[in-house]
Amino acid sequence: MQGKISLGLTKGCWTAGGGMTFTRASEGRSLRFNGAHGDLARRSMLVDATVGNEAARPVDLSTYELDMTKITGTMPSVSSPGSVEGTPFDTTLKPDGAAVFSRAFGASLVPTGRGLATLSGRVAVHPALG
Length: 130
Hints:
The protein is mainly beta. It has one helix at about 95-105, and strands spanning about 1-5, 10-25, 30-40, 45-50, 55-65, 70-75, 80-95, 115-125. Strands 1, 2, 3, 4, 5, 6, 7 and 8 form an eight-stranded antiparallel β-sheet that branches.
């Protein structure tokens, strides 16, 4: 992950690479999520979503709460970066996320406001210089 975050995790953003594809083999329908983008102030995760062969579009997929008791951090030093690590936390599907599942498969796999996934993350911390 890359980004800029406040030490209190109340503002900033992050970006993660990679992706995942959901496929309904019986009909050949698919939905691909690429590159997650997070906004810590809004606790929101956006992804680039591709339905079938359509062009990718940004989707406000889910929201999340951070339990600060599950967050650990180490400060950077001259010889190594620090880190902020969040152990498993739940995400909740937002209306735009449910809509893209419905576009791809005729119905959302998860209802709006319900749990979508459990995630963990680690961000390397490098001090800003200058």
